[in-house]
Structure prediction request, 479 residues.
Amino acid sequence: MSHTLVRSLLILLVLVFAMCKPEAVEKDVKRPPNVVLIFTDDQGYQDVGVFGANDIATPNLDQMAADGIKLTSYYSAQAVCSASRAGILTGCYPNRIGIHNALGPDNTHGINASETTMAEMLKAQGYKTAIYGKWHLGHHKKFLPTRHGFDEWFGIPYSNDMWPFHPQQGPIFNFPDLPLYENETIIDTLVEQSQLTTQITERSVDFINRNKNNPFFLYVPHPQPHVPLFVSDKFKGKSNRGLYGDVIMEIDWSVGQIIDALKSNGLEENTIVIFTSDNGPWLSYGNHAGSAFPLREGKGTAWEGGQREPFIMKYPAQLEPGRVLDTPVMAIDMLPTIAEITEAKLPEKTIDGKSVWRVLNGESSKSPQEAYFFYYRVNELFGVRYGKWKLYFPHRYRTMNGQELGKDGLPGDYRMIDMEEIELYDVVNDISETKNVAAENPKIVDKIKLLANDMRSRLGDSLLELEGSETREPGRLNQ
Prediction:
């Protein structure tokens, strides 16, 4: 065989190999990580074993923390249902986008179509998306999750107590039937909810099985443990904290089922799983409420117990397991963090969150945010977290201290307190916020006032009758 012929054959082999190579390379390209966000309702800071619960067994969440990271200074976006969901899904302070309080059957507004949800952001990256559980960002068709980036939805449009069986139906409320949705179709009217956690879990597992070959975003906003409490027979009477503890045990089981589905499909390594809650416990419900211990107060307040939540994140491919982080992080940071990890494009409109990926992966212990702002009601600025400090401005808040707690599904009555002067707490060394140190730290107080005034100029403050220059309108039914 001539030298020329040999050379020609070698060139031909190289060309054939090169033509085949792209397919082989394509198979080796690592796909973007899946994202699973598990979001409970009214769960207290202490209501997980690794956060201090000794009367509720949460083996799956405890194992998730051992396999991932635990954040001890994570805050929800606001201390109430709809607002907190708006924050984690859009990366915005809820009042920036006009979502306040808890939307109900009578509301005619919801999330604006011009806002970008985490689902829309990831869908643009080729992700399959689903939500199984409670939506609560508007119940009219234009506001439903299927109109805001989710391919699939099974669940309820607002809180599970917004139904005719509310204990205060008649004297205070006049709720219609509670609908159960499959995408945009009402498939049932709920008269009891004991199978809902199981159904949500089964849908979640099925979604993972069906999408094992696609990157996906699975959002699981459980209606529980928001009252009224419901649990299936498989967990009834199993905890040492009554019905509330049974409900948490079933949610823990649900987490285990989802993680097992990831494992069985070979997806665990490359999946981000986040577990947290929307706000603190609804303390007026007594034995049907969770515990925020050692934090002060609960849901509906800016005190630590209202917004400081359990947070566990697992991502075996990128996160060293077993670490505990105390750097402050807020729900508004989740969207930009997921965007950085998945290389997704951030929303075009201004958001408030910043990526905390370098904090989560251990590259930094410093938050990218100079401060976090605690709004409540309709745009009232209650407080600011700045480093180890938490400052509160004069405002009215509710407490159950000295009050008779509710029992077995009936609420007790809150007592209202007027905070008349600025209060400052070192929430690192005084986690229970017992000692007001404002007088001893005038420079810190002045610094936080400056930060607050800057935020007021942008987002406003109803307590001072200030309108912000950057707030946006929610979606309106007739617009």
